[in-house]
Design goal:
Blueprint lengths: L2 H13 L6 H107 L11 H60 L22 H92 L1 H14 L11 H63 L8
Helix pairs in contact: 2-3, 2-4, 2-6, 3-4, 4-6, 5-6
């Protein structure tokens, strides 16, 4: 070995740290053995614990997921139950609303049907104002016509109030229907979502992590959720029951008002018939009296003519008697004697004058009576015309107009 190399090795040995003793070497190795064994033991325990933890968590995860799946299925059943309840109530409220609409149509037809009878009754009252004289009387017909107008107006007012009530009930029905539809819409969405969640598995392709999913804001409790749908169902039931009661009321009102209108219509028609019969009887009696009066006028006219002729016929005897008296005043001297002839002629003149005066007085009285008969003739003829006018108004204008009135069940 070269000397330089040997010197270098010796120099390094002199500068190297001190060496360990063999016992120290054995102890150091034993420490390493023990340390490795402890580390290995800890690792084995951790492996075993990890396996137990993995198994436990797997079981817990599967159990929890199974429980979640079960709860989702239960939730689906609850949603389906309430959806069915809501759907049934929606179907009921829709059908009830349709029926109530048909009742509203009946009300509107009934209101329309009241127009003609009411107009006819008012027109009859106006026509009867055209009666004249004593026939412009507040009779039974007028009283019943006024009552008929009041009945028809009352029916119209009642039907209009009922129609307004029906409109309000229809609005409430539609509100209940809207709430059911919105609830059903939400239930359908929730059912779709939970159905989707129910079908998800660990191997589904569209699963993934999501942030902040544990916190749910503005959520309601299950009791509130149930109460919400139950309230919608109860409100729908309430409005449906109210609608049923209103339909029964409408049916009763329509039946009763139609009956009242028909009854009053018959009463007015009977009053018209009785009044027309009574007026015809009076007119016939007036015509009979007029005929008798005309006969009496003819008789009185003939009587006046006879009285005038009688007066005229007395002029000749009066002239004869007066001429005889005047002529006998020309008898001469003692022949101008107041003999029985003279007295008789004087009596004759007085008698004829008295009889002529009686005839003239009777003629004057007869002429007065004739004037009275003529006035009575005019009065009877005017009254017959009044009755004819009344009959035309009642029998032709009013009764024929009323024949077109048709009051049926609404």
């Amino acid at each position: 070995m070269p000397k330089d190399l040997l010197d270098a090795i010796m120099a390094k040995l002199i500068q190297a740290p001190p060496k360990f003793l063999p016992p120290e070497w054995y102890i150091a190795n034993k420490v390493q053995y023990n340390s490795a064994e402890a580390q290995r033991s800890r690792s084995e325990r951790l492996v075993d614990e990890s396996q137990r933890l993995v198994d436990e968590i797997e079981r817990t995860t599967q159990k929890t997921q199974s429980d979640v799946n079960k709860r989702i299925e239960q939730r689906l059943e609850e949603i389906k139950f309430w959806r069915q309840q809501l759907d049934d109530k929606l179907d009921q409220i829709v059908k009830e609303t349709e029926v109530l609409l048909s009742f509203k149509t009946r009300l509107e037809k009934a209101l329309e049907g009241c127009k003609e009878p009411l107009f006819t009754a008012q027109e009859c009252l106006l026509n009867r104002e055209r009666r004249v004289g004593i026939d412009l009387v507040h009779d039974e017909v007028e009283r019943e016509l006024i009552k008929e107008v009041e009945v028809f107006q009352g029916v119209v007012a009642l039907l209009e109030r009922t129609r307004e009530q029906t409109d309000e009930q229809l609005r409430l029905n539609r509100t209940a229907k809207y709430n059911l539809e919105q609830d059903l819409k939400d239930k359908f969405t929730a059912l779709t979502i939970d159905n989707y969640c129910s079908n998800l598995t660990n191997n589904s392709t569209d699963i993934g992590y999501a942030q902040n999913v544990v916190k749910i804001e503005n959520s309601v409790s299950p009791e509130q959720w149930t109460d919400f749908s139950n309230t919608n169902v109860e409100k729908a039931d309430k409005q449906r029951n109210n609608s049923l009661a209103l339909r029964a009321l409408i049916d009763s009102i329509l039946s009763q008002t139609a009956s009242d209108m028909r009854k009053q219509n018959r009463t007015v028609n009977i009053a018209f018939q009785n009044r027309v019969k009574e007026t015809k009887d009076v007119k016939n009696k007036l015509e009979i009296h007029l005929a008798k009066l005309m006969d009496e006028i003819n008789s009185q006219t003939k009587n006046i003519d006879a009285l005038k002729k009688a007066i005229l016929d007395k002029k000749g005897p009066a002239k004869v008697a007066q001429t005889r008296l005047e002529t006998r005043t020309h008898r001469p001297n003692v022949e101008l004697c107041r003999d029985t002839v003279q007295y008789r002629l004087m009596n004759e003149v007085q008698e004829i004058n008295h009889n002529i005066q009686r005839l003239m007085d009777t003629l004057a009285q007869a002429e007065i009576e004739l004037k009275g008969l003529n006035r009575q003739q005019l009065s009877l003829e005017e009254e017959i015309e009044v009755k004819a006018n009344t009959l035309y108004i009642d029998e032709v204008l009013c009764m024929q107009m009323r024949e077109s009135i048709s009051i049926n069940n609404f």
